[in-house]
Design a protein that fits this description.
alpha+beta; 4-stranded antiparallel β-sheet; 39% strand; two-stranded antiparallel sheet
Length: 98
């Protein structure tokens, strides 16, 4: 079974929408980093300060190909919306999981 290692970084405002997606598609194994600061073209700078308000979060997932396709499809569809919050999906082939 092929697996993908995915890091999904997004505005914290997307938490509920993403977790609904995970529940709907039985994606139950993930790690969540609730506070991630950064800057990007899609979501701007988010440092949770008066000058740069807002906060990002990160999900770390190890997904079989079929579940990865669901997450990738959601990210692609979401990024086509206007207006939208920032969201970025990074993936690596998962070589081994112990």
């Amino acid at each position: 079974m092929n697996m993908e290692f995915a890091m999904l970084i997004c505005s914290a405002t997307l938490q509920e929408e993403l977790e609904q997606l995970f529940r709907k598609h039985k994606i139950s194994a993930f790690s969540q980093i609730p506070t991630v600061y950064g800057s990007g073209a899609g979501g701007g700078t988010r440092l949770d300060t008066e000058v740069w308000p807002g906060m990002n979060m990160m999900y770390i997932l190890a997904l079989p190909d079929d579940k990865y396709a669901i997450v990738k499809g959601w990210v692609s569809e979401y990024r086509s919306r206007q207006p939208r919050e920032g969201v970025k999906l990074f993936t690596l082939a998962l070589k081994e999981m112990l």
